[in-house]
Automatic annotation (TrEMBL):
Function: Catalyzes the reduction of the glycolytic intermediate dihydroxyacetone phosphate (DHAP) to sn-glycerol 3-phosphate (G3P), the key precursor for phospholipid synthesis.
Entry's Gene Ontology molecular function annotations: glycerol-3-phosphate dehydrogenase [NAD(P)+] activity
The protein's name: Glycerol-3-phosphate dehydrogenase [NAD(P)+]
Keyword Ribosomal protein: no
Pfam family, one: NAD_Gly3P_dh_N
UniProt: sn-glycerol 3-phosphate binding residues: K107, G137, K192, D245, S255, R256, N257
Segments passing through the bilayer: none
The UniProt record lists the keyword Cell inner membrane: no
Residues at which NADPH binds: S11, W12, R32, Y49, K107, A141, R256, I280, E282
Catalytic EC class: oxidoreductase
Region forming the signal peptide: none
Coiled coil location: none
Amino acid sequence: MEKIAVIGGGSWATALVKILSENKSEIHWWMRQQDDVKHLLQYRHNPRYLSGVSFDLNYVKPFNDLAAVVKASDWVILAVPGAFVQNAIASLPKTAFEGKVMVSAIKGMIPDENCLITDYLEKHYNVPASHQCVIAGPCHAEEVALEKQSYLTIGSHDLDHANRFCELLRNRYVKANPLDDLDGIEYCAVMKNIIAMACGIAHGLGFGDNFQAVMVSNAMDEIERFLTAVMPQHRNLVGSAYLGDLLVTAYSQFSRNRTFGNMIGRGYSVKSAQFEMNMIAEGYYAVKSIFELNKTYKVDMPITTAVYNILYERISPAVEMEILKEKFK
Ligand SMILES: NC(=O)c1ccc[n+]([C@@H]2O[C@H](COP(=O)([O-])OP(=O)(O)OC[C@H]3O[C@@H](n4cnc5c(N)ncnc54)[C@H](O)[C@@H]3O)[C@@H](O)[C@H]2O)c1
Ligand SMILES: O=P(O)(O)OC[C@H](O)CO
């Protein structure tokens, strides 16, 4: 039986625990709140997210002792939003992940350092790239809970690790495939959240599907330009880990980033939009990181710039959309 640590108690962590435990891996599940651990042990579901999903406690062991959870596992999945990762694992010694395979389920960056999660783990915890995987692909936790057909891509420089993790995930409703473009899919997963916010903002302002389709196609060019500058490598950007993930986030009713953007377009302040959502829209943090990182690369990124200006420079969404309207082809 594989022993897997899952760090995080949100929707995606809950969906991953469902998939992996149903396949009979032993899950050591770290949740921040002691009350949530107690609730899970008593009622067999997460009280806050996807609470319709029941767990078999023979396979799911919830704790809030992080060091014990990591020590007991061979694989460690990070599934808290990027902005909270540093804090979540800060209590661990720098050697805590030695010999483990780290799997980032996060579609976000470390805000203080504007770096990818895998780069952060390598720099601060000495986890070599060969011991890292990322989970990508268009997959909403809510649809996993409903057992709707879904597809995941496991990125790693080590395809043996990627293949093994795919085996742990595959079931009746999840297909999983390996890919060697670890950094490319990690960056793309971050950027699609920014684009989804832009789509939501446009929708909130009253733009229609025609404009959104042009936004998404321009976004693919923007993502390609950025990836070519930062991580040049041949990649098939119409694959489901790239275009597929962008489409689900840009169009789905379940998208946190689109929902957040929609509120901004309708006139909510950042604070009030965050307050209304029980969930985290990663794109809010990601746009600052990508915007700042791009000061080095100087790639033409009109959509990222527009979202940054709206969220951080308080420029009116209508003004920024007018600029994009003129720029798009
Ligand atoms: N939800 C999905 O469908 C989905 C799918 C793929 C990837 N992801 C990625 O998974 C990661 C986790 O997102 P999610 O959707 O599970 O989150 P969520 O929005 O469902 O839940 C928020 C999470 O943030 C945690 N949190 C909130 N405030 C915190 C704080 N101050 N300190 C520490 N933790 C705090 C909560 O405990 C909870 O775990 C994100 O990077 C997201 O992009 C999500
Ligand atoms: O669509 P969002 O904004 O909820 O993000 C969740 C996942 O990244 C979808 O794959």
